[in-house]
């Protein structure tokens, strides 16, 4: 006899009630049918689940272990069937979101939490991309949705984009840097003496974007923005950081904002996804992201 849901349910009801008759009543079956189910299941397992010697049905040690370690199967069976049915009707089995490393991530938690609630059967993956790596993730099908793709859409067929807003940049140096005390606008000659800290573009199949740097200036590539900020605070180098990421450090005086000759312009960001893709999850995400209260949260 296959170890079906009904067989598991029968065993658990008998264990809980201590009676074949009570279990049969709750299952709307005759006691002999319940007894037969248990007998066939014990034959399949190769050991007795119940001790039938006394008036009260008791679990054997092996039976108790079986009950203790099979409850999760009953608990998750209905959920498994429900989620499988959702996949059958067209809901994505997996959904991949790529985010730009420069966006404000405060809204990401709510997005994922609500997405998970709406689509419990979908495996959600969120990865970070840098610069044109965002567009590359769409091109390479690593992402179903991008939050924060920069600048204008490259020449890619079948991609839809929607403007999010602009990220402002601050050029910062360490409080201890010799540049911190300079009053005048910093020149290229002054800046070139110090390494620039940047995060490298993650594009693999389309042309990577060069991060801000001066000709002849040493470049140090940090793995992500938090490390870049820490390196600048330490005085290892200088560089541009999104304003929303460095505001607290500026307020605390841990870094100093400086004016330079070649000022970095704000970066325009977009939502982006593949057009003509039948995806209930993608449709839900787009509708969620287009709500007014979610419009500017990624840039502030």
TrEMBL record:
Pfam families: HTH_1, LysR_substrate. Keywords: DNA-binding, Transcription, Transcription regulation. It comes from the Bacteria. GO terms for molecular function: DNA-binding transcription factor activity; transcription cis-regulatory region binding. InterPro entries: LysR_HTH_N (IPR000847), LysR_subst-bd (IPR005119), WH-like_DNA-bd_sf (IPR036388), WH_DNA-bd_sf (IPR036390). The keyword S-adenosyl-L-methionine does not apply. Residues 1-60 form the HTH lysR-type domain. PROSITE patterns: HTH_LYSR. Coiled coil: none annotated. Belongs to the LysR transcriptional regulatory family. This is LysR family transcriptional regulator.
């Amino acid at each position: 006899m296959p170890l079906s849901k009904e067989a598991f349910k029968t065993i658990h009801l008998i264990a809980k009630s201590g009676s074949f008759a009570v279990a049969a009543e709750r299952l709307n079956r005759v006691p002999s049918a319940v007894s037969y189910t248990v007998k066939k299941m014990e034959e399949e397992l190769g050991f007795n689940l119940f001790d039938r010697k006394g008036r009260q049905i008791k679990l054997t040690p092996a039976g108790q272990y079986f009950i203790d370690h099979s409850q999760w199967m009953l608990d998750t069976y209905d959920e498994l069937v429900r989620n499988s049915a959702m996949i059958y009707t067209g809901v994505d089995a997996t959904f991949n979101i790529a985010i730009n490393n420069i966006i404000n991530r405060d809204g990401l938690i709510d997005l994922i939490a609500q997405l998970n609630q709406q689509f419990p059967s979908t495996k959600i993956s969120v990865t970070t991309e840098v610069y044109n790596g965002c567009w590359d993730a769409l091109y390479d099908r690593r992402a179903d949705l991008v939050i924060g793709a920069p600048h204008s859409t490259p020449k890619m067929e079948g991609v839809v984009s929607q403007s999010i807003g602009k990220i402002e940049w601050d050029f910062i140096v360490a409080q201890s840097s010799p540049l911190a005390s300079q009053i005048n606008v910093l020149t290229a000659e002054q800046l070139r003496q110090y390494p620039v800290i940047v995060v490298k573009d993650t594009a693999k199949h389309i042309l990577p974007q060069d991060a801000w740097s001066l000709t002849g200036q040493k470049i140090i590539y940090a793995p992500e923005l938090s490390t870049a900020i820490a390196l600048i605070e330490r005085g290892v180098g200088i560089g541009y950081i999104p304003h929303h990421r460095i505001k607290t450090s500026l307020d605390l005086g841990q870094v100093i904002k400086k004016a330079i000759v070649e000022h970095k312009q704000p970066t325009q960001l977009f939502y982006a996804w593949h057009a003509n893709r039948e995806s209930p999850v993608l449709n839900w995400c787009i509708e969620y992201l287009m709500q007014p209260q979610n419009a500017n949260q990624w840039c502030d």
